[in-house]
Amino acid sequence: MLFRSLPWQHREKATLHGLFSLQEDATLETFLPALEAYLRHLQAVGYVLRWRVEQQKVLGNFDRGLPDFTHSIAIEFPDLDHDEACYQYVSGRTEPVHALHVAMYQQVQADARFFLTYEPAPQ
Q1: What is the CATH number of domain 13-119?
Q2: How far is CA 83 from CA 44, 48, 55, 63, in A?
Q3: pTM to 2 decimals?
């Protein structure tokens, strides 16, 4: 399923957030190009709008209860339908997305956590 959003359409926005740390033998210099290739592919086929990766700054007791992580990611989708379709596409393990996902995700520690937020479209 291929989605194309028209620029004048206002839809709900969905954002997949991830909290993660890199594997011991991975660096940002190896991870970021792999992540970029993966997300640019998802963007080219019409699922992803934009993304950003940030490093964690420890805030003492303010971040208590969060899992241990060093980085976060926010991947923005036009809406919840695009997020779901993207999940189905990636979980289908077809090429080239499977190889791109593996190249990126093998550099992430297994305890990464993800959650989805969304902004409903105006009524």
Answers
A1: 3.30.70.100
A2: 14, 8, 24, 27
A3: 0.85
